[in-house]
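Whiteboard transcription, Tuesday session. T.W. wrote the structure tokens on the left side:
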């Protein structure tokens, strides 16, 4: 009998029937066997078996309207509290809508097929099938304008420092209102998780900062500091003998800002490095349109963003993040013990000093 092909060594497809007692972990392991279900299973396994090792620093990029759908509360906060997220790059919109929950404002389930003309007449704002009163925007705007009027904001700062300070005020509002675990901005403040925004002017937060500038406010975002701080986090992970993991929810500018840390280290600063060790993306974007959101980990190798030797440790799931993130979160929390938080926000100065030292020794400066 001819020897079996090496391509037939995979586990036989012979799933256990799903029952009322099937757990989520069992469902993923035994029934997510092919297509994007299989990629999601591989993502769960990559995340829990490799990315959550103690020496791995995990950066997460967040795009798409995830926080208004409640995923800040249900997924991102539990992941941070378990030490499963070490630093974040988010759209400003996700942070703005996250703040609604932290200051006690309500968002509601709705329908995507209601007339927007009718909603506008009734003062209701729609994010697909999420509804909220127009006053939610006005109240959140007022909150940010009041916060950034404070003396500690009258200077230039990285977006990580800005979000840390905002998180402090959101946390205080939660305390006064008697609510908790509502805002991932406040959770990041408590846990020392730095949050960056790759395009700080592209959200209602940035719009309110711009409005206050017209009144003489001195707040400025130092985007160069953001670029260097994020690069220093990745370099610090590597120089400590550990690894760097990129977990991408969606795509867009935050995806690039997370991945460009390696070209900043190698191409621009001339520091010897090879790329991120782990790549996990959840996206609905196709690669053939040429957009960054759909760019594959293989393409990232050509830019130095991903270590070519680590491509087997790269998974792309073509699944809506609102489906994949809760499953990944439940799987990870149910199968892996919490990690000690790295509190990278507290180490920004040290990490920047290390980056500066290596840059001064390079031939690129």
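and on the right, the sequence the group agreed on:
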């Amino acid at each position: 009998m001819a020897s079996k092909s090496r391509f037939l060594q995979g586990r036989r497809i012979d799933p256990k029937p799903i029952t009322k007692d099937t757990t989520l972990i069992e469902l993923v392991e035994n029934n997510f066997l092919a297509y994007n279900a299989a990629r999601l299973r591989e993502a769960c396994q990559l995340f829990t078996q490799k990315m959550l090792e103690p020496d791995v620093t995990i950066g997460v990029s967040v795009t798409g309207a995830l926080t208004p759908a409640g995923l800040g509360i249900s997924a991102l906060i539990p992941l941070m509290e378990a030490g499963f997220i070490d630093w974040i790059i988010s759209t400003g919109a996700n942070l703005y809508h996250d703040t609604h929950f932290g200051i006690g404002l309500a968002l509601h389930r709705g329908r995507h097929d209601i007339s927007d003309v009718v909603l506008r007449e009734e003062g209701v704002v729609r994010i697909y099938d999420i509804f909220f009163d127009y006053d939610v925007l006005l109240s959140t705007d007022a909150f940010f304008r009041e916060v950034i009027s404070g003396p500690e904001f009258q200077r230039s700062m990285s977006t990580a420092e800005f979000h840390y300070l905002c998180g402090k005020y959101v946390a205080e509002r939660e305390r006064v209102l008697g609510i908790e675990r509502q805002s991932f901005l406040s959770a990041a403040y408590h846990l020392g998780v730095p949050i960056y925004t790759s395009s700080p002017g592209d959200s209602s937060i940035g719009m309110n900062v711009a409005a206050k500038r017209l009144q003489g406010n001195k707040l400025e975002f130092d985007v160069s500091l953001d670029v260097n701080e994020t690069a220093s986090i990745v370099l610090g992970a590597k120089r400590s003998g550990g690894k760097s993991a990129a977990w991408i929810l969606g795509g867009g500018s935050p995806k690039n800002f997370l991945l460009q840390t390696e070209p900043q280290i190698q191409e621009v600063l001339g520091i010897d490095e090879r790329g991120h060790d782990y790549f996990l993306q959840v996206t609905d974007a196709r690669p053939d349109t040429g957009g960054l959101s759909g760019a594959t980990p293989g393409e990232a190798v050509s830019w130095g963003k991903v270590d070519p030797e680590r491509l087997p440790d790269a998974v792309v799931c073509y699944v809506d993040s609102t489906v994949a993130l809760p499953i990944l979160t439940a799987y990870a929390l149910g199968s892996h013990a919490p990690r000690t938080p790295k509190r990278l926000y507290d180490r920004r100065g040290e990490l920047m000093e290390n980056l500066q030292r290596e840059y001064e020794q390079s031939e690129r400066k």
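Someone added at the bottom: The chain has a mean pLDDT of 94.
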